[in-house]
Amino acid sequence: MADEGRGAPVGAGVPGVPGVVAVDHVGIAVRDLDEAIRFHTEVLGLVLVHRETNEQQGVAEAMLAAAPAPASPGGPVDGAAQVQLLAPLDDASPLARFLERSGPGLQQLAYRVADLDHACAELRTRGLRLLYDRPASGTRGSRINFVHPRDAGGVLLELVEVAVP
């Protein structure tokens, strides 16, 4: 019987994707961005930290984060994973097709990477398909790419290289 609390972690000795540093965000597909923001801020107490329209991706989006503890100064915790709410700009958007097929809900899991080009090259050498030949533009000027869900257990994985301010 395996002792789940001891021993080498699963995958020990297998080099990981270079530069994965954190879970960046979880993307949730919604039909009504304003209503979803209202729910997450007024009901769940998250803080709206960023909102933008990304024409290239065909989405309107909002990034939300957990509010700091009452004793903590300032805004949301730096570097903590966030929630990304995504609404399609029109019916031709890939996100509109996702909503039509799957309905609202979890759309993607995003990992923050130190070097997107290196991470993409490494994943390709491991036989994974990426959605873009070259990185696309993401939230707040980040560079992004996606691992095809069929190569990632049915989950759309986003790789995010955060823009340097």
Account of the 3D structure:
Keywords: Metal-binding. Residues 22-162 form the VOC domain. It comes from Microlunatus flavus. By secondary structure, the chain is an alpha+beta fold. It has one domain (20-68, 76-161): Roll (2,3-Dihydroxybiphenyl 1,2-Dioxygenase, domain 1), CATH 3.10.180. It has three helices and eight strands. It has an eight-stranded mixed sheet with strand order 2-3-4-1-5-8-7-6. A hairpin with a 5-residue loop joins strand 6 and strand 7. The radius of gyration is 17 Å and the shape is globular. The relative contact order is 0.19.
Helices and strands in order, then pairings?
Blueprint: E1 20-29, H1 33-43, E2 47-54, E3 59-65, E4 82-88, H2 94-102, E5 105-113, H3 116-125, E6 136-137, E7 143-147, E8 157-161
Parallel strand pairs: 1-4, 5-8
Antiparallel strand pairs: 1-5, 2-3, 3-4, 6-7, 7-8
What would you give as the CATH superfamily?
2,3-Dihydroxybiphenyl 1,2-Dioxygenase, domain 1
Beta-strand residue fraction: 25-35%
Can you count the beta strands?
Answer: 8
Beginning-to-end CA distance, first to last residue? 50 Å
Pfam families: Glyoxalase_4
Domain VOC: 22-162
Family: Belongs to the methylmalonyl-CoA epimerase family.
Keywords: Metal-binding
